[in-house]
Each structure stands twice: as structure tokens, then as C-alpha cells.
Backbone:
């Protein structure tokens, strides 16, 4: 579990309004049609950041970028991703595109073609917030996913909630049977870490390791944090 990766979350620090969380501005961006431009900008900056880290002797194997449902309506998406990878000379396997459960479950031709094309490039595909929607197991088995992320709501109190524990364990086992990595979000306590390690979860992510960091603080975090917990520090 000494797997280092980075998720590039969107953060907006307004000069007068202060910090505006994604939960506030992302829905507005979707309503106004700006989400596609924001997503492509995030993709470009994330790939650029990986290369900048590497030039400063900080090697992060994989960066994850969230893409909205709007992006998957466009058949230009795979070419846009490929163009950014070529721009920064970044190997495809070092990028993972995160999609919501609702996008993954869609069966329209555009989404299906985009998912397949992205995987054919060699880029990873991760289903975010797994378990919060209406996943079909038969559909899940057909998707070209490389990763699923168990939503934080399932582990908030799973030490004392047998139902949440059963769901988390089932999700981990599903991932293993399908041959894909399983990430658990929202790890905040050592007891959660211990239990998830016992269940065989591949990657843990949450405030127990770090709150979201500016990119410039990444080298210091890696230098000062125990190596055994170097797991998805930016998510």
C-alpha cells in the first residue's frame, strides 16, 4: 500500500469572497455551460503539475482528474486527452480520469465509445463515489474501469455500524474479483486505516494522511510524512 498518487481537486480562492468550495461553484458551472472548459483546464494543469514535480525530483506515478458528464457527450474527449498527454510528454498510464457512478451507468453510445477510447489510449478510468448511486453489477462488469472509489459515507462510522462495514467489504471484494484497484475515501482515523488494511483495500485516502495541499507543499509533505502513509495525499 505504499502507492503514491495525486488527485487534483478544484479549489477557488476568490479575492473578495474567500474560499468557495467545489460543491458551490461546480453546479453553477454545469448550469452555465462552463464546466467543459473548467474540466479541460484542470486536465491540462494537472498533467503540467506532474511534470513540474518530476523536474523538482518529486515523482508522482499517477494523477487523477475528475471529468463531468458533459465531457462524455463529446466525441472529441479522447483526442483532447491525448493532445494534453502529448503536450507534456506524459505517459498515458500516469493519468486517471475519474467519472461519477451516474456517468458510468449511462448506456448511451457516446459515453460507451468515450470510455472505451480512453482506455485504448492507456489512460486509467476510476468510478468515483461508488455505492452512492444505482450501480448494476452486470453493467459494472462490462465497464473498462481500472479503479473504483468507495464513498466516504460508508466508513464514517463503520467501526460501530455493521451495515456500512459489510458494504465496504463487499465493494472491496467486488473490485478484487474484477481485477481493479479499490480506493476508500474519507479515512480520518487510525482505526479506519487498520480495518481497511485488514479488508485488503488497495489505496486509502483522506484527512488522516493530509488535507488538500497546494502543489508547492507536496515536496515538504513527502519529506516529513511517514512513507507508509504516502497514499493519495491531495484528495
Residues:
Amino acid at each position: 500500500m505504499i502507492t503514491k498518487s495525486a488527485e487534483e481537486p478544484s479549489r477557488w480562492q476568490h479575492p473578495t469572497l474567500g474560499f468557495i468550495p467545489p460543491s458551490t461553484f461546480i453546479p453553477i458551472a454545469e448550469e452555465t455551460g462552463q464546466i467543459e472548459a473548467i474540466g479541460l483546464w484542470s486536465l491540462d494543469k494537472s498533467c503540467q503539475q506532474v511534470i513540474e514535480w518530476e523536474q523538482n525530483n518529486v515523482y508522482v506515478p499517477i494523477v487523477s482528474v475528475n471529468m463531468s458528464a458533459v465531457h462524455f457527450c463529446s466525441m472529441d474527449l479522447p483526442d483532447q486527452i491525448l493532445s494534453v498527454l502529448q503536450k507534456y510528454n506524459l505517459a498515458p498510464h500516469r493519468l486517471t480520469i475519474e467519472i461519477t457512478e451516474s456517468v458510468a451507468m449511462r448506456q448511451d453510445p457516446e459515453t460507451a465509445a468515450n470510455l472505451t477510447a480512453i482506455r485504448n489510449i492507456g489512460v486509467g478510468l476510476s468510478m468515483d463515489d461508488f455505492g452512492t448511486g444505482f450501480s448494476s453489477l452486470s453493467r459494472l462488469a462490462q465497464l473498462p474501469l481500472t479503479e473504483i472509489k468507495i464513498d466516504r459515507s460508508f466508513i464514517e462510522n463503520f467501526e460501530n455500524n455493521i451495515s456500512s462495514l459489510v458494504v465496504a467489504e463487499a465493494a472491496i471484494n467486488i473490485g478484487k474479483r474484477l481485477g481493479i484497484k479499490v480506493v476508500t475515501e474519507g479515512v480520518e482515523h487510525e482505526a479506519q486505516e487498520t480495518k481497511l488494511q485488514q479488508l485488503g483495500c488497495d489505496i486509502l485516502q483522506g484527512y488522516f494522511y493530509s488535507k488538500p495541499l497546494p502543489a508547492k507543499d507536496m515536496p515538504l509533505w513527502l519529506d516529513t510524512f511517514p512513507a507508509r502513509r504516502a497514499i493519495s495525499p491531495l484528495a
Notes: The first strand starts at residue 5 and ends at 7. The two ends are 16 Å apart (CA to CA). The beta strands are 5-7, 12-14, 18-20, 62-66, 95-100, 124-130, 147-150, 181-184, 203-204.
